[in-house]
């Protein structure tokens, strides 16, 4: 018996020693890949600096001073060549990167691409509508020849062999992808950092996140390094960064714009997406909602979307919905009953309501039903397998320590989490308890939750129809741009955007104002009834001057109406 026990102990010791050895070798391998990538990035930054200097700085200043419409017109007329535009934005993005650490890699091919476009002009060809426009792309989106690591060191040096559908469409429209931008590890967070490329700063305040997961894009655009970016969104990754960085962003419903996760890199089914029913999809980000609308108008002006992704219905641009002067009935709310926003985030919704009423729209109070339960369902169906794949992908890589601590609760056995939920409830932490009941432990539960999403979608659109409401106005987030670590403690703070991923509504965010001294003072009365509110209060302090956005959302195929309302709003708010 003793020999048997000894053999077991020895076997276990050998197994753990082997595991430790394997992990040490993997860590060394990943650290080597990161070091190699950092060198490659440094070389590309030097390349960018040299490229930018090929255009006289005065000429770059002239081109950089043009807004989106002016640059498009100058490119069409030939006053600006594609090469000049791309080179100018290589320079401007470099300056933005030095301020915010927002760029992951430059796309060297963009210079050759711009030259080829200029050659087409000389040949007298007719020019596509976005001829020569430099565009920035979120790192996780496929651009031929570039990595899409999602912040995973294990995914370095698996370059895409083809463009993602939205990139393909941009190129067909004449645009030139020239740079890729930073993301948080795994994309499932609204901060913006990883061990490969580091942490991206909010250009409005160092030490604050630009949001995520399309945070690099938001920082780059807000810092003037790009006129147009493409991001992706499954819980608010276009809209929360737009709010934090004071820019505009649109997440169309998943049926209008593609996100064929092309698994030609490391990811494959192991990592890429896999959130059925709650589809991630791509969308535009820019300094203004008008630019976002112009891009989607070009995407939807023909059958381009369904040509590049047959799974998308051929739904064209709806000019009537977008018509200037069109008035809508808009439901509004300032709390979703799950996470009360901090004062400034409430105030800008009230201000937006007033502005839109002055514009002739009808604003009526509206409450989204049952948000707390639907956020539990959202988390359950987003993580799908109880968080096993998410945890496995992160733990086998080289995550920043704070990501591991954020994931630690998911390591607790689900039955233990659910038992602890009773304790959390008894302490009055009903929201924490709800989260503790979110991880799925079986396909039986998952089916039930998928069914509840379908029933919820029908219920919400029915209630909107009964109230004769076209769309909804609400906060974009619960706080202004917080410190980098905040989102990893407050995943629950994504409820204002995530609910519209669950509903698969089209939704957009534009900047309405900034956090002011009154908001700071009112923060004293913000609740501290559970750890999440206490943290949201702490993370929102000292935010005077930070941008604040609002969100507008509507059922699928009404994205044009959403953008019309957001443009009516954007045109009537005080400029930053
Ligand atoms: C990575 C560690 C975080 C812990 C995750 C806990 C379980 C996740 C539950 C809710 C988090 C939802 C956050 C959503 C943020 C935005 C995600 C997004 O839109 N990503 C874009 C994309 O995937 O393309």
TrEMBL record:
<dbReference type="GO" id="GO:0017064">
    <property type="term" value="F:fatty acid amide hydrolase activity"/>
</dbReference>
<dbReference type="InterPro" id="IPR023631">
    <property type="entry name" value="Amidase_dom"/>
</dbReference>
<keyword id="KW-0443">Lipid metabolism</keyword>
<dbReference type="GO" id="GO:0009062">
    <property type="term" value="P:fatty acid catabolic process"/>
</dbReference>
<keyword id="KW-0597">Phosphoprotein</keyword>
<comment type="similarity">
    <text>Belongs to the amidase family.</text>
</comment>
<dbReference type="InterPro" id="IPR052096">
    <property type="entry name" value="Endocannabinoid_amidase"/>
</dbReference>
<keyword id="KW-0442">Lipid degradation</keyword>
<feature type="domain" description="Amidase">
    <location>
        <begin position="84"/>
        <end position="562"/>
    </location>
</feature>
<dbReference type="InterPro" id="IPR036928">
    <property type="entry name" value="AS_sf"/>
</dbReference>
<protein>
    <recommendedName>
        <fullName>fatty acid amide hydrolase</fullName>
        <ecNumber>3.5.1.99</ecNumber>
    </recommendedName>
</protein>
<dbReference type="GO" id="GO:0004040">
    <property type="term" value="F:amidase activity"/>
</dbReference>
<keyword id="KW-0378">Hydrolase</keyword>
<dbReference type="Pfam" id="PF01425">
    <property type="entry name" value="Amidase"/>
</dbReference>
